[in-house]
Design brief:
By secondary structure, the protein is an alpha/beta fold. It is 44% helix and 15% strand. It has helices spanning 14-25, 53-60, 81-101, 133-150, 173-182, 201-210, 232-243, 254-271, 279-286, 294-297, 307-332, and strands at 5-9, 29-34, 45-47, 65-68, 105-109, 156-162, 164-166, 195-200, 219-224, 226-231. Helix 4 (133-150) links the parallel strand 5 and strand 6. 41% of the residues are buried.
């Protein structure tokens, strides 16, 4: 393994912290470029904004590889123009700094959202048809990276399109699902037969570290998901067994699900605040988001963690203690 000087944007975020840990463990010289410090690696922090050209150039000087993870990704970002300001303009600013500083390798965290919904049968060669601003902004950032790598034969880019990422400490979709199951407020939308790809953060982080070295064409694109997929019902039942709860077995019809989402949109419009069940979220929940990973499987990368075991452990860490305390309090009363 060749030691590299690596700049990690978003290195204080959920995925970023794990990527930094993986790179440090492999002996690389790591710099963290983020608006917030990474408390675990205080000496590595370079506080700055990817939308600020001067910050980018200062952080990029002397770097061999840029690992670009920084992005706005939550689905309640307002105004929506911020997705494009950070995810697109910020990427462009970073690439200008990379060009000025002679950086020739970029590893970029894109998203499976660039495919849209129910649209990935062809793997990485599927049509790109995002349905929300986050997906559109990620696709626009991919275009900037395609143009950048085409501008110099010495450059290379690896793009990773991960499925939903989970692990202890994350507060994304999987956490919300576990929270609802733990609190017994969960409602199964649809039959639950639709498959969902998931990715354990420790595996994704190792894959990013593995991609520091070019391993394919100048522009290499990978879907990332840990296999085998589970259906929504299988995911929910595994979480419920782990947490000692029950889930309703009577599915809601699709028409009622979409009506519920429209009601959520109305609540958002009236209150001007995000609502848990809006139309975009329920559509994603009932969609088939099984991500083909043949290219990943053929790459030679071996994920170090069993994702099903890690899903169970995540549920236990986040909510197992709460369930035990609740059960104890009930039995003592």
């Amino acid at each position: 393994m060749n030691k590299r000087t690596v700049l990690v944007t978003g290195g204080s975020g959920f995925l970023g912290r794990h990527v930094v840990d993986a790179l440090v463990a492999e002996g690389h010289d790591v710099r963290i470029f983020d608006l917030e410090p990474n408390a675990a690696h205080a000496s590595l922090n370079r506080i700055g904004d990817i939308c600020n050209p001067d910050d980018c150039r200062r952080a990029m000087a002397g770097v061999d590889v840029l690992v670009h993870l920084a992005a706005l990704y939550r689905d309640d970002v307002r105004p929506r123009s911020r997705y494009y300001k950070v995810n697109v303009e910020g990427t462009g600013t970073l690439l200008e700094a990379a060009t000025a500083c002679g950086v020739r390798r970029v590893v970029f965290a894109s998203s499976f959202s660039v495919y849209g919904l129910d649209n990935v049968a062809g793997g990485e060669d599927s049509e790109l048809a995002p349905v929300n601003d986050y997906g559109h902004s990620k696709l626009a950032a991919e275009k900037l990276l395609r143009d950048w790598v085409a501008g110099d034969p010495g450059r290379s880019v690896a793009m990773v399109r991960p499925s939903v990422i989970f692990g202890p400490g994350n507060r994304g979709n999987v956490y919300v699902l576990l929270q609802q199951i733990s609190s017994r407020w969960f409602l199964l939308l649809g039959s639950g037969s639709n498959p969902k790809s998931m990715s354990f953060v420790g595996n994704v982080a190792k894959f990013f570290a593995w991609l520091l070295e070019p391993r394919g064409p100048a522009l290499d694109i990978y879907n990332y998901a840990d296999k085998p997929d589970m259906t929504v019902r299988e995911i929910v039942e595994l979480a419920a067994r782990t947490l000692g709860t029950r889930v309703p077995r009577v599915p809601m019809p699709r028409s009622a699900i979409l009506a519920l989402g429209r009601c959520g949109n109305l609540v958002e419009h009236i209150t001007r605040r995000p609502f848990t069940l809006n139309l975009e979220r329920v559509r994603k929940f009932i969609a088939d988001t099984s991500l083909p990973v043949e290219r990943l499987s053929q790459s030679g990368f071996k994920p170090p963690h069993d994702f099903r075991r890690e899903f169970i452990e995540t549920a236990r860490i986040e909510f197992g203690a709460q369930r035990a305390a609740s059960t104890s309090a009930t039995s003592d009363s």
